């Protein structure tokens, strides 16, 4: 019916018919023709004739065609800018974050989650966690570290800030040259033990293994490594790896046989 209207009315036809056609094609799973129609709508509609959902729908369509990533999220930004209701703005931003995640663009997802966290007056610790974790998954460890340090400050009695700040610091300092993750892991162990050493056993053990490895491999301090490994056995008595490494590091270094002296030659020339 919309196509018939366009044919009958020609240049005088309401551009919104193109939008109706785009929605119809989209509902049938035909993204190619849906995009053609929405492009026509955007080309012909007057600037004051758009509503926020026009831009969010266009963003959803653009996301289905590689190479349109930047334009996709610009379209979402326009939708958020146009909408005046906070609930609608937050819903649109959440749609953008979910779309970015679906597209595998974790950094873009993190950007939108950050916008939600800062704008939503009812933002929770879960929102802050998801914001930081998206940056961690994006490999932007400086950003995830900063966000989880903020989580630590806001929720000092929970382990999650310490856990992911530790992992972020370790990912930044992969060669362990600065030891940036050491105080983070030490604090993680402290909080996890104080909170629930049974529930958070795996996190405690993982942190202690990191510290033991740092002591042995970087600081060349076998005694320090053994102390951390013994703490693992205290928390997790059945941990075979910890006991194995304790046994290995506790062995005295193998003694080398003294070098044999070369035989001295007789003054008589061997006669």
How does the SSE layout of this entry go?
Blueprint: H1 2-9, H2 16-27, H3 31-44, H4 52-62, H5 69-82, H6 86-102, H7 106-119, H8 125-137, H9 141-154, H10 160-172, H11 182-196, H12 201-218, H13 222-235, H14 240-250
Helix pairs in contact: 1-2, 2-3, 4-5, 5-6, 6-7, 7-8, 8-9, 8-10, 9-10, 10-11, 11-12, 12-13, 13-14
Would you write up a description of this structure?
- The protein has helices at about 1-10, 15-25, 30-45, 50-60, 70-80, 85-100, 105-120, 125-135, 140-155, 160-170, 180-195, 200-220, 220-235, 240-250.
- It is mostly helical.
- Helix 9 (about 140-155) packs antiparallel against helix 10.
- It is elongated, with a radius of gyration of 31 Å.
- The termini are far apart.
Oligomer: single chain
Structure annotation, total helices? 14
Would you tell me the overall average pLDDT? Answer: 92
Beta-strand residue fraction: under 5%
The total count of strands amounts to 0
Spell out the helices and strands N to C.
HHHHHHHHHHHHHH
CA-based shape: elongated
The whole-angstrom Rg is 31 Å
Low-confidence stretches: 266-271
Largest beta-sheet details:
none
Helix share of residues?
A: 55-70%
First-residue to last-residue Cα separation? 122 Å
Q: Which class of secondary structure composition applies to the elements?
A: mainly alpha
How would you briefly describe this protein structure?
The chain has 271 residues and is mainly alpha-helical. The protein is 69% helix and 0% strand. It contains 14 helices and no strands.
Features:
mainly alpha
